[in-house]
Amino acid sequence: MADLQGNQAQLPQGCYKCNRQGSIKNKRFVWVPPWTFVFLLGGVFLMAIPYLFFKRIVRVQYTVCQKHNTRHKLAIAAAWLSFSAIICCIILELFTLMLPLLVFMVVSIVVASDSLRITKMGEGRIWLAGCGPEFRKLLPAWQASEIPSPKGSGG
Length: 155
Ligand SMILES: [Zn+2]
Known about the structure:
The longest helix is centred in the middle third of the chain and has 27 residues, at 66-92. Helices cover 43% and strands 26% of the residues.
């Protein structure tokens, strides 16, 4: 959970997976209430109406270390690569290769989607999923206080 300031939220320092040092990122999230997905049953266009009315754009500042940043990018690249390979297999009619490629693609997507995401949004607060256990351990102490200034977090 993180406090929102306007449309911005700031996570404590440390990689959101392993709590090591890393580079600070700013990511733009678009969030809609989960019930709006019911409208998808009526088609994408029907979904667009509540989507446009209720969507919220939040900027989250977080830290990610080199290792987890690379892992995330590799997983996305692997997913696209295997997707392209599947298309090639369809064109070349290499259907025996498709199943392992499909499995590989699903695994890549699972790994890639295990990144920071918003699960819930409340008044001035957001709930985030995808953080690692090392990072979560640090959260209760942080929640009890104000957002720490970088110079105060020595150690
Ligand atoms: Zn990390």
